[in-house]
Known about the structure:
Layout: H1 8-21, H2 41-62, E1 75-76, H3 89-112, H4 121-140, H5 145-148, H6 150-166, H7 184-198, H8 206-227, H9 229-235, H10 238-247, E2 252-256, E3 263-267, H11 281-299, H12 303-314, H13 316-326, H14 332-363, H15 377-384, H16 389-407, H17 411-416, H18 440-470, H19 473-499
Antiparallel strand pairs: 1-3, 2-3
Helix pairs in contact: 2-18, 2-19, 3-4, 3-6, 3-8, 4-10, 4-16, 7-10, 7-11, 8-9, 11-14, 11-16, 14-15, 14-19, 16-18, 18-19
Amino acid sequence: MPGGSRRPLATVVLGALLALSGAAPAFAHGFGQRFDLPLPIQFWVAGAGATIVLTFVVVAIFVRERAEAASYPRLNLFATPALSWLGHPVLLEIVKAFFALVFVVTIAAGLFGLQDPYRNIIVTMVWITWWVGLAFVCALIGNLWALANPWATIFEWAERAYAAATGGRRLARDLPYPDRLGVWPAVIFFFLFAWSELVWSESDIPASLARAALYYSLLTWLGMFLFGRERWLERGEAFSIAFGVLGRFALLEARADPATGRRELNLRPPGAGLIERTVSTSFMVFVLLMLATVTFDGLLETPLWQSLINSLYSHPALARLFFNLADYRISDSELTMTVGLLAVPLAFVLIYLLFSALMVAFAGKDATGEDGRRASVGEVARAFVLTLVPIAVAYHLSHYFSFLLTSGQFIIPLLSDPFGFGWNLFGTAGYRVNYAIVSPYFFWYAALTLIVIGHVVAVYLAHLDALRVFGSRRAALMSQIPMVLLMVGYTMLSLWIMAQPIMG
């Protein structure tokens, strides 16, 4: 989600548009001006860390029994007369068709519209409205992407047309999906997406962005054709998995009733979808990659990163290397950010595995799970990784909250003129972005609150998982000491990164 000086969209949208509109320059995360925190950052960091520790103490005292994954309370909104229409098949088809149309128009605008990143809808639609805005919806309300996914909708239409033309034959080949692949294809695609967002120099060029989206569309449809639509959405489609991960935290849950098969839209406690689920190694890496890429995005906006880059450029051997690579049109900036984007997720995985090993060690030799044996480090890592999702949700929301409220307004005039041809379809083409919509202090307090709440929920979920994985209550409590330390450390890192653009 563009928001820093190293990313092209930020330079264009948060710089050029501001200059054109006469507004004051915006800093990272949408803060309109630099300001001093009411208290030194050390106090905020220490207070947030203490909150996490206190939460652990409270949970350890009062939570003594593990929760069953399917036992949390649900309220089926489709069973409520006033809301039953929400599940009507016609309405669902209209919603899917609408998002498919938005997808087609967005791609067409990128390919055939004015090649001006702040007058062509594709740049704002992809980086702000879709990736940032939809992530907020999926995390806070429910996984809308499961319904709105245009790749799934278009392939479904193709399946229906093919079946009608061939007397009911299936379009997909339904080849067996190798279990050893897990969700590794999605891991690769998500990394490439993060690279295109944070590193790629053409991420703000409408035609280049549209072509990249088309390439991914073709790969997605190929995966659906080979392995089946549902199988590829579960294993290979990066955004179905990413939004699905965020959606497990949300208040709404769409599912089919196990007994009757009827569709349900359930209201549930936040985070309930994360309880007691052991995932594959590849899925674990995917979750950690989501967390790491947002952290790396924030790190790019800190003086620490700039100091690191300056030290690299000042090294004689590296300076010569960068100079020689320039002859091959390899950007030194893209190279260093690519290395960083590889290094940060790798560090996240290694650190997480280290703390998983510490959890096993702290639990003791007598700790046994439901099957009567002691869990391995890998099993513990796979069992607890979903407890980090509230942290990922909190940091995503806090990191991009101000950016969405400010830069997200760009979509208003672009809706009336998506191609940049001077249209005014809905009468909003003259809208001017208001960067003073919320004060910077509100952004800071909101970010602080979101991060702390996310970590508190993560502590609670981790304790529930520990009761299941380690059997005895004592072993569960002991195992949580390393996990709490990890969460406290990440809370402090998150707040430090968030505070960098606004520290005096």
